């Protein structure tokens, strides 16, 4: 049976490993650990998706404000049909599109999205903008 002091040493050595960044090469974003709060955030995000799928879109004051801002972004832009947009994109034209439905298939599963603003150049997406709106003046991680 392992002695208590050996177990304590193992635990303390784990702190040293994290401080030294031993796992940086194995983990994404060059981090040496995964924070419990990241796991909690991921779980919360997944739960939000689950609740949305079960209950539908619940309108709140924040979602109404965000929707109004998003609608304002594309106000005044000319409407174009998808076929024309894709012809222009594939011809290599430099093109900005707003609120465009995007579709793809990954491992046989259809994936659908809508971008706030895309810039295409030479037939490829150069920039994708996804706007987020908040009433905070300074982001919390600044």
Write the topology of this structure:
Blueprint: H1 4-20, H2 36-55, H3 61-74, H4 82-90, E1 95-106, E2 109-121, E3 124-129
Descriptive overview:
By secondary structure, this protein is an alpha+beta fold. It has two domains: 1-58, no CATH class; 59-142, no CATH class. 42% of the residues lie in helices and 22% in strands. It has four helices and three strands. It has helices at 4-20, 36-55, 61-74, 82-90, and strands spanning 95-106, 109-121, 124-129. The chain has a three-stranded antiparallel sheet. Strand 1 and strand 2 (109-121) form a beta hairpin. The radius of gyration is 23 Å and the shape is elongated. The N and C termini lie far apart (49 Å).
Mean model confidence by pLDDT: 82
Secondary structure class reads: alpha+beta
Order of helices and strands: HHHHEEE
- Whole-angstrom Rg: 23 Å
Q: How many domains make up the 3D coordinates? A: 2
Please state the overall shape, judged from the principal axes of the Cα atoms.
elongated
Strand arrangement, largest sheet? 1-2-3
Distance between the termini: 49 Å
Biggest sheet descriptor: 3 strands, antiparallel
